[in-house]
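note to self: the first set is below, dont mix up w the second
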Amino acid sequence: MSNGAPYLSVIIPAYNEQSRIADSLYEIKDYLSKQSYRSEIIVVDDGSSDLTTEIVKFIDIYGKEVNEHDEGVLMENIKNVGKGYSIARGMMRASGDIVLFTDADLSTPISETNKLLEWFDQGYDVVIGSRNMENSVVEEKPWYRGIMSGVFNIAVNMVSIRGIRDTQCGFKAYRREAAHHVALLQRIYGFAFDVEHLYIAKKSGYKIKEIGVEWQHKDGSTLSPVNSSLSMLRDLIFIRWFHRKL
């Protein structure tokens, strides 16, 4: 850390998350308040049509008034663009030495953060949570999610990036330099953006580490078994084309 800047930036992409964003924010804030390092929280609302932004604002104002938590950063997309776009915006805004993004439903508990952070001291630039390592602790997925994940992982290894067992776990951390570099080059805004991040990072010479984490299935995902799968497979081809000069 230097000049009082935060060590960790936590980015939370959110789209119509009024039913769970409050619980997730309180859990993240409570966890971070117990750590020895400074941190910041950046919520990026992707054009929600519910009360997501109002809830985030209320929690920040209330927490600041009672001196329980620091006020976070709320960024709002004018319209729904995609999770990848929201995370890229958050990455460019982040000022922490390490930039972490996590799903709004906390499918991976925020307490798993330190499992990722310790690897940066060993020279890694990108550390990603994985549901497919031997030490991963994963609640059984719905059958269709398992099939989708298996087919997509095969396609990823064939078309874009080899050696990563789980590109889609929504729990990834980057050195700030790597985060900004990846976000600047990112072109995919849908669910395949994770693959693009790793493809850019690997082609750019950043060291990547995959770590087993806890993961629980949470209802309410906007992932469509058919439409999302087809668009993600299409985007794998686009990733190779967009970054063919790297």
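second set (the one i keep forgetting abt)
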Amino acid sequence: MQSESGHEGDEELAFRDTQPPYINLPIPFTGRIEGGLQDGHKVTVMGRVLSTDENRFQVDFQMGISDTNNVAFHFNPRFEGSGYVVCNTMQLGNWGPEEKKMQMPFQKGSLFEICFKVDSSSFKVTVNGSIFLDYAHRLPFEQVNAISIGGCVHVSYISFQV
């Protein structure tokens, strides 16, 4: 059946999965982003911050499964003081200047949902449904083909949509 615009399936404007989700992951975890990141992609990470002595966790968007020297986007909540989030980029093994958001949207022991939406200029990060930050691209996001997660966190679900 055709829609008014004459194209089949136009009513399917909702996000669609670009690959199967990762479910109940061992941490640390590194997984492939099939086909790499593209403008309009949305990566959703759901889980729980663990109540441990460890004081941070991170979500890294990498330029390769085993390439830990090139991280396009390092998202790193730290439970030190009143808490803050560090964002950065690593190129050829060297960190760039840190961007700190002096706000902590996560709580130890609590569930969370982080959405990373990619557009041509930045990663737009939403935490628990609220806009949290924009992180301007420092490396070509099209070269990102892996996501890595570590620290005091349990991840129940990572989905990939466009």
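remember for set 2: The chain has a mean pLDDT of 91.
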